[in-house]
Amino acid sequence: MGLRYTLIAVLLGLTACAPGAADSAATAGQESVENHRESGLRIISLTVETKTKAQSFRVELAGSRLEQAKGLMYRTSLGPDEGMLFPMDPPRKAAFWMRNTVISLDIIYIGTDRRILNIAANTIPYDETPLPSDGDASAVLELAGGRAAELGIAPGDKVDW
Questions:
Q1: Residue 109 and residue 118 in contact, taking contact as beta carbons nearer than 8 Å
Q2: pTM of the model
């Protein structure tokens, strides 16, 4: 009789280790996390409230120093509703450049009140001229070059993520 219970315990253990069993148990009731296919960074939702409407984006979250140092370098495309967010903790004056960045970007500096301080629009690929914030930034948002003007995104607009 002891052998029967041992076999049942082993079979139950193997069932629990089956592919997907642990995943479904671990993620039951939790939101799934999506990562970008190219960078591997987590994707989050971000909204910019302009004077006329809310604009929604799905942005890569560059949280670590290494992720922020790489940013969008070497990328050859960025979708119209995609971008990258660089949180700054603690908030500080920031300056970005375009070293090894193939595509033009709009670099949007976000203040501590989550309002846009200033925008370095249509940046020049590979240019190493520092593009500074107009104050302490709590985050920086990068979008495809020209997208901010296209959507009417301007200083003073509210950004939420």
A1: yes
A2: 0.80
